[in-house]
Amino acid sequence: MARDLAIDLGTANTLVYARGRGIVLNEPSVIALNTKTGEVLAMGHEAWQMIGRTPGYIQAVRPLRKGAITDFEVTQRMIRLLLNRAGVSRLNRPRVVICVPSAITEVERRAVTEAARRAGAADAQLIGQPMAAAIGAGLPINEPFGNMVVDVGGGTSETAVISLGGIVALRAIRLGSFDIDHSIQAYIKREYGIAVGERTAEDIKVAIGSAWPSPDEVKAEVRGRDLMSGLPKTVILSPGEVRAAIEDQMSSLCDSVVSCLGQAPPELAQDLIHHGIHLVGGGGMLRGLNQRLAEETNVPVRLVDAPLECVVLGAGRCIEAYDDLKTMFM
């Protein structure tokens, strides 16, 4: 008998939850291809290590950008590999629940479900990431009061107010962790004349990146290629510089949260003052982001436990209680 699966198909990471077993896979959403032969060389962590370090005929690509499929064929192959690693074969075709951004278009929805079915799923259902995150965080979404979730992913950020099992207010923007990384790259290039790679920018963000000042800040050494001489060069970067580099992204994110609060009915907005806003997703782990959002909204903000796994755990609960929770599907 095939085990039903839940998949959080993220721009940055893909997680797979198997019914009765929990999370069985957590890999970067990267696949390495030989462009001469079309052969898949690696997927996940192994392919992520290749980003920016491959010869011309080998491409390490992310088939999803801004929460949407940019390459249908590659995404289908990646989903097939994920299902194979989770133990799916031609003889046991599972039902699959896939977490997707709530703001994706009907065409994008069909692309995701079609890719999953062609990859070996017997049936594919979609669930919005904010709803899955709320279920995974253990929020009482079926109660008649407001629950607010801010999900900051790799390519999209979504804010939703949920009550009585449905989304009352939603604000989604195509902005996420990768945009923050690119801003750091652009700042270092503009201010210091140094080119750094995608992975280096992410390391800087994790090491000294923040959305709000803290007393224990330290500087970081950044190594890159000097654009004038072409030689390796090292500079010292401060947390304040990183905050300045990503200010536009932080402002856009805060504006979307404030906008979603403005869409919520007054009674639910009143509930949120007591219950607060719940922050999930890998981007939500940016140092000081909860303080920045709390300052902008005047509402307490809490980073949930296991923010990276929260969405797939919520979809996993839908798999475990498929018939009871299938009304949550899109």
In short:
The protein has 12 helices and 18 strands. The chain is α+β, with helices and mostly antiparallel strands.
Q: How do the helices and strands line up, and which of them pair or pack?
A:
Elements: E1 5-9, E2 13-18, E3 22-28, E4 31-34, E5 40-43, H1 45-48, E6 58-61, E7 64-65, E8 68-69, H2 72-85, E9 95-100, H3 106-118, E10 123-128, H4 129-136, E11 147-152, E12 157-163, E13 166-173, H5 177-192, E14 194-195, H6 198-208, E15 220-226, E16 232-237, H7 239-245, H8 247-263, H9 266-275, E17 277-280, H10 289-297, E18 301-303, H11 310-320, H12 322-325
Parallel strand pairs: 1-9, 9-10, 11-17, 17-18
Antiparallel strand pairs: 1-2, 2-3, 4-5, 4-6, 7-8, 11-12, 12-13, 14-15, 15-16
Mean pLDDT reading: 84
Assign the structural class, choosing from mainly alpha, mainly beta, alpha/beta, alpha+beta, or little secondary structure.
alpha+beta
Number of folding domains? Answer: 2
- The second-level CATH architecture of the largest domain is 2-Layer Sandwich
Task: List how many beta strands DSSP finds.
Answer: 18
C-alpha end-to-end distance: 26 Å
Largest sheet: 5 strands, mixed
Which class of the largest domain in CATH terms?
A: Alpha Beta
CATH topology title of the largest domain: Nucleotidyltransferase, domain 5
Helix content: 25-40%
Widest sheet: strand ordering: 3-2-1-9-10
Shape descriptor reads: flat
CATH superfamily of the largest domain: ATPase, nucleotide binding domain
Q: How much strand? A: 25-35%
Low-confidence stretches: none
* Helix/strand order, N-terminal first: EEEEEHEEEHEHEHEEEHEHEEHHHEHEHH
CA gyration radius, whole angstroms: 20 Å
Individual helix count:
12
